[in-house]
What does this fold into?
Amino acid sequence: MCVKIPIWFHNIINTLMKYILLFLLIPLISFSQETHHPLIPKYGAIFETPFAVDIIDPTMAYKVVIDVTEAPDDPTTDVNQIYDRVAKLMNLHAEAGVKEANMKFVCVIHFKAATSVLSDEGFMEKFGKNNPNTEIIQLLADHGVKFYVCGQSLVARKLLEFPLNPNIKPIHGAILGLSHFQNLGYALLK
It folds into this structure.
C-alpha cells in the first residue's frame, strides 16, 4: 500500500533540511575565512581545513626541489610569489603535523627569477631600491630552505657584477641542480 504524503508536509521537510544543512555548514564556512601562518610568519597564509582527509605522514621526511623560474610583473617592487608558495608549502606541512626537521626544501632559481637573488646592496646598485624578496628569503632560509641560483642565468642576465643574497649559492646550471636533487629523491615542484 502506497501512502501519499501531502505536499505541504513535503515542503516543511525540505525547508527543515535546508536549515539543518545550513546550521551544520556555518562552522565550516566561518573556519575557512581566516588565514594563519603556523610556521612561516607573514607569508604563505593558509586556511584551516578541519574537513580535509589526512594524507600526510607527520613522521616522514618530505624532500621537495622547487623550480623557481618566474618573476612578478614588477620584480623591483613585488615579492616573487613562488617564494610565497614555498612558505605556504611549509605552513601546510606544519599544519599537518610535520616537524620542521622533516621538511627538506630546496629552491633552484633561474630564468626570469634570477634578479631576486641579489642582495639589497646589489639590487640597489642595479635597480635603485632594496630587493623586495630579502625578507621572505631570509625567513625561509631560517627555517631550513636551501637556495641555489643558476650560474648560466647569472651570466646571461648580466648579474655577476652584483653581490648575491648570502643565503643563495651559485651552481653551474639549474638543470644540473634540478636533476641532482631529483636523483637524491626530491620531488620536483614546478
